[in-house]
Fold:
Amino acid sequence: MSAEYGADQIQILEGLEAVRKRPGMYIGSTSTRGLHHLVYEIVDNAVDEALAGYCTVIDVQINHDNSITVIDNGRGIPVGIQKKAGLPAVEVVFTILHAGGKFGGGGYKVSGGLHGVGASVVNALSEWLEVKIYQDGKIYQQRYERGKVMYPLKVIGTCPDDKHGTEVTFLPDKEIFEETIYDYDTLKIRLRETAFLTKNLKIVLRDDREEKIEKTFHYEGGIREFITYLNRGKQPLYDQIIYCEGTKDDVYVEVSMQHNDSYTEGIYSFVNNINTPEGGTHLTGFKNALTKTFNDYARKNKLLKENETSLSGEDIREGLTAIISVKIGDPQFEGQTKQKLGNSEARGAVDSIVSEQLTYFLEQNPAVAKTMLEKSILAQRARAAARKARDLTRRKTALEGMALPGKLADCSDKNPANCEIYLVEGDSAGGSAKDARNKSNQAILPLRGKILNVEKARLDRIYGSAEIKAMITAFGTGIHEDFDISKLRYDKIIIMTDADVDGAHISTLLLTFIYRFMPELIKQGHVYLAQPPLYKVEKNKRIWYAYSDDELNEILKNIGRDSSNKIQRYKGLGEMDAEQLWETTMDPERRILLRVIMDEETTSELDLTFTTLMGDQVEPRREFIELNARYGTLDI
Structure:
């Protein structure tokens, strides 16, 4: 008998129930990323006050109980009765979806929290939330629990007449989130970026848990200082930071840029302080302006002769770090994730302002213009050489490209969804892996030594590297502008290196290559790190494997610590025979794989990390290692 289905089975989710029922629709996920998103929503409301010219300081506190407090000195959320709802405006903001000062009522000229769901969604997904408003000499307060009002808005005290602003404290709901412990560094990265994008705004991040850390972000130079920060692991080619600013067609445009000695471009675009990782019309306008203006200047000043080919945008952007930030009244985003701007007026505004002001800069700084040209011409030549090498690679079949002594041992299953490839460090470990694998769906590609550091190499050298060519051909997707994920030959790309410092370095080299030239593989979840065991424990002919020191201690506690325990510390994959390698690292039923993920909201910080680790500058790398040593293990 079929289940009853009638009018009574159609549910209406009232108020904030819909948010609690489907949280992922509103904050992306209930993982740690969604958890941190709650903070961003409240902070973004305060930033909107700053963009409107009313807020100069935002305090963000992680409290000892892991609740969050955000305090701003803006105007304070209105406390008067909102006529349509018949409720205080603050209650409407925190309990009704799509309510706020951002829908053409004149409250905000520009706003990041476009959809007006921020405060109410945070409220819905919190165990409790309290809001205090300082306004007209009074302190107002209201409390909610899981989105429900606990008492009407009330006055709880007085304050000086000149004190104003909003204070929101909330505790994320354990019933909703998989994890409710906030990560200080994750918040630090996002808040630093927000401060760079809002010049003169001071943001203070305080962690009142065990370590009691406090950090202030305040950048009078705004995005100019952002460029200095992003280029700190590189060598700038000239001292000046090019800065363009202006308003056209009601679009406020800010652009800053500077070339460095690297071979990768780092261009980051923002709309109303929201990162747009997929770019959009503002990015298109910038690229058009840069390419056209620079070529026009080079020809006019005889830096490029009439018979010489114009420089491509890619040539000019090699080694360029740039920030494009626009403020726009009614931003139209393509897709719900706000990742790509669609407003046509943004393209014209950025193009016009950058063209005019960049032309002026180049005319005033001929030495910088010459430096940029020399870098671009070298890039153009390297690109031509790379094109030849790429065409050669294209003509080879998958196996012809494998000129390594330990060739690709491919799998017999031709359905990519079932297949995985292990990138294995060294020939001896590669031999063990070939013997251990399931030949039907596991391919092995042994890599000899440390591959080329792509952070320090141009495209032509990358195409000339045998190890990299082997990976490109094996994966099947091509790289760079040729990349096509539909041609991927394996669902999982698994990096398997020794569990020591050298192995970690090789993993980082491989990840740098994939991140720089095939980032979509990471974004779509195809890249993994194998986790070989650190220890083998043997007692009375029984064997246990430990993947960490804690696990080793747990095993020893369970079996008893005595002289009959045989403990072997694995220094490399080559110390394991095929059976052990299969049991510990390759058997899908027992292995541990770490999926490599990237947060597109903080790509600038990710770029900086790779540059710091793999670039030429020693001092930033030393600082990074010292700062992050507490998260790592020392291998001696």
In short: The first strand starts at residue 57 and ends at 62.
